[in-house]
Amino acid sequence: MLIRPLSIDDDGELHALYVAFREASASVAEGMLPPEEAMVGQIREPGSGFQREVWAGTDGDGPDAPFVGGATLFLPLTDNLDKAYLGAVVHPEFQRRGYGTQLAQHVMARAVEQGRTVLLADAVASFAEREDNGPRRFAEGLGFRGASTEVLRRLDLPVDDRRLIEWIDEAAPHHSDYRIETFDRVPDELMASITHVHNQLALDAPTGEIDFEAQNETPEQIRERRERRERDARAGEVTLESVAIDSTGQVVAATTLHVHADRADTQPIRAPRSCSASTAATASGSQSRRPTCASCNSASRNVRRSSPPTRRRTPTWSPSTSASASWGADCTSPSCARPEASRSAACRPPWTPAVL
Prior knowledge:
Layout: E1 2-5, H1 11-25, H2 36-44, E2 50-58, E3 67-76, E4 83-90, H3 99-113, E5 118-126, H4 134-141, E6 145-156, H5 161-171, E7 179-183, H6 191-204, H7 219-234, E8 237-245, E9 251-260, E10 269-270, E11 276-277, H8 286-304, E12 313-320, H9 323-327, E13 338-348
Helix pairs in contact: 2-7, 5-8
């Protein structure tokens, strides 16, 4: 197999990479990928906070050599400078020939060459196979160890209005000092405080064995991401942000909802991966952060009610620090989000033996 830089200006190559990701993930959790235009935009414009490398693997070196798969490497440039985020994918037609190992080892070596000492990648599997699955065995074979786990749950739509009102009423007593608002474009006057809240997420969210430092994202980078989201909106993706604002006019919690306007009804909405709350701005500490996040999430659920009637389910990735407890939770209520897939963050510190 030939491994070479993927031409990010070549629409055909980016389409082949997208197809590989789509087909490889289809049997695990359908519709996990964003729209193709959005993914292409993320690769072409990763943002000023990251250095990006994308590699293509072909079965031979001729101009007509078939596209086998690809690998990605994203390096933070402003914080967490010990880390590298990598991924490798092989189209199902070419799997089990060693191509995935070659692609993964290539970007792993590239990360180490650039001084990164903690390599991070996701291994996604169906919920039923969460304890033993091919992606996990593949990662383990490369020396990775499981470091944290998230579970994908889906909520059937539409949610009964009475249930939405119950959620909102349940959260209301806990945010009497805040007002909850939802924006498709966060106002400039809230940029500084929402940036602080987003930066705190790396510290507040459960991350298992992985230690993160607070992000150093700036309001300018938030605006840059907003511009990319506006481009994504033209590609059929709309982003909504629900925020809790305190009496001083500062954002103290936020949750994000991505709506794919032109997706099939099996996976139209990508719900918040996590609610981020500012420890510093929340006077009552961790006990009040949860209700504030619940209020933001209730606002997002309320927004979903106005989604087009073709929308059938909404998924959300939820961090889990106890796989057996969280994954095995009963889900009998009609409004309960059912567990469907799991995603493990595989961590490989190259200077120590892999521990599983």
